[in-house]
Amino acid sequence: MSSDLHPNLDPTKMGLGRSIAVLTSGGDAQGMNAAVRATVRVGLYTGAKVYFVHEGYQGLVDGGNNIRLATWESVSMMLQLGGTVIGSARSKDFRTREGRRKAACNLVKLGITNLCVIGGDGSLTGADAFRSEWSGLLGDLVTAGSISEAEAKQSSHLNIVGMVGSIDNDFCGTDMTIGTDSALHRIIEVVDAITTTAQSHQRTFILEVMGRHCGYLALVSALSCGADWVFIPEMPPDDGWEDHLCRRLADQRARGSRLNVIIVAEGAMSRDGQPITSDQIKELVTDRLGFDTRITVLGHVQRGGTPSAFDRILGSRMGVEAVMALLEATHDTPACVVSLSGNQAVRLPLMECVQVTKDVTAAMAEGRFEDAIKLRGKSFENNWKTYKLLAHINPPDVKSNINVAIMNIGAPCAGMNAAVRSAVRMGLIQGHTMLAVHDGFDGLAHGQIEPITWTSVTGWTGKGGSMLGTKRSLPGKMLEEISQNIAKFNIHALVIIGGFEAFVGGLELVQARAKYEEMCIPMVVIPATVSNNVPGSDFSIGADTALNTITATCDRIKQSAAGTKRRVFIVETMGGYCGYLATMAGLAAGADAAYIYEDKFNIKDLELNVEHLVEKMKTTVKRGLILRNENSNANYTTDFIFNLYSEEGKGIFDCRKNVLGHMQQGGTPTPFDRNFGTKMGAKTVLWLTDKLKECYRHGRIFANTPDSACVLGMRKRALTFQPLTELKADTDLEHRIPKTQWWLKIRPIMKILAKYDIKLDTSEHTDMEHVINKRGDLGK
Question: Which region ranges are annotated with the description C-terminal regulatory PFK domain 2 (predicted)?
């Protein structure tokens, strides 16, 4: 066992002489296959032997053919499959010491001392118990003569790394567990379908979603579809909720709504711990209001289907991190779980996470519901706060006399409307008058401005495109007219939702403050573009929807090659000069290469890629997928690359070309984009409200400091406001991209998973963190 592993050691030799076993346990979750595939391929890349353990812990106990060597090709075409290809089972045998002794014997005989477990908290707790008993189990096996002293010495220590695979997102310490995003996709597909029929008949629909002990799916679904009410176990409704619920539903109908949606987590309960069932709610609504009410219980539909792009990327990134954590572990390293915080991969001590997860259950049992919400983590708490603000408060009678204008700029993208809806409603809740500006800066210049009300944004969360209308025009040549309309309509603050044009347009307005005093108002740019190229944010609204569209299309394209064999597809993606979509879709769809502007390539690289595909055609995997960002190179166009591959592959493979085009900007927004847009819109208006108080002097608003015009962006682990003028220095204005982009660091993962002989940068070492530190004083 190498205990002196250094992060700068050659990663292709880290695993020499080591063996890793990977198993999936407990309930299945979409994305588990991506994690298995990455663990196998990165394990092999490091020089280690990798074994599949079929049927979870039961396979570990039974041994024999259940523990098999994995090869590179054996994980091909797994990425887009739901469930777990290697099988999962809940094992009674493993719960007994005798069962664990058999499992230990099977591992020792194969020289396996590194175990990667993908499952929920029960599966991971079992793994930790197995590890703590390891030396005792080996002692028993030596005494019984099942293994020799030499074998016991060789396998004296067992390393454990966990990845959390659970659709409920019920494991503390990680923002998202593998499978949660895909389950949300299934739920939202159903909600969208039900909404159309409910509106036709003016019905109330009660949707029951999974989550026996955790309300994450219910809460995010409610946020993503603008549900009228949500029941979650962490925060039971106040006493007398029946009257409140009926009042809310009747109120919505009185405002002109033709439907009501109520979302119930299967573990929903009242303050005194009694279950709240869908049937109970149906009876209440029917008896008191006489509304035509229907129940839909989603059940195992939520576990099924293809994993979303997010879950594939999450599984792949976690798989890489898990292998590194196993190979870097020493005798003193506690069993750890690899997880996600913001967009950062982190390692956390497994039992700390399990403990906090248990603390949540204890807090709920003791009626400490506020603590339960906080213990779930920042992400859960923010979702709950946003939901409460948007759903539970009626606009005040007293007006603030503040007018906030909202506009969309640049190309349309899915999720823009969700941001507009939440900004409008949050503004109305604050007592502001909200103004809709149609057709971007053109509309602001030509006075296409009108008040927008609570009901006028009903149902916008799930609508694609831009309901306000959007154009790419910049304000530079219309400053005179814009300043006149800001004065005419008495606009006190501006919300600009859009892509790179929104960023540049915002900058132009700030620069115009010196000449036009009307521009001295607080303003916020919310990044919304499929290209994900706005400085100041790691993610833009709309990029996730586009990514899922590309990934789903690539799946179909790859499937079409399964019959014909020996075929290579060249697919062109959008993104301007930003290679985010091509890179992430490459990771999610299992591409062989992704050509982008930021990662320069020449004819030698193209030649290398062709040779790589020629070699690939000699294996059982006889197909290739190449992605090219639309502006990756002015001379190596999609046609050029297609012609080059066609010529060089003659007699070995044939080529096909696909330009995906504007389908990437369309479609209904994914749950991520709906939720992200909703949170961004709400946070923006709350920030502007505070900023307006700061800037109010001598009876008027005057804002000309850099921090009064910001981009709201996701940075690593938090949503932050950053001044537009400060971000300008980090912007390549010619190519419309930020100078530093976080996702470039995960590009090598795509190349390694496609079997390229490159070096994985392990210098950015992920240290073990502590989940306890994140909890503050809670649960004491």
Answer: 403-780
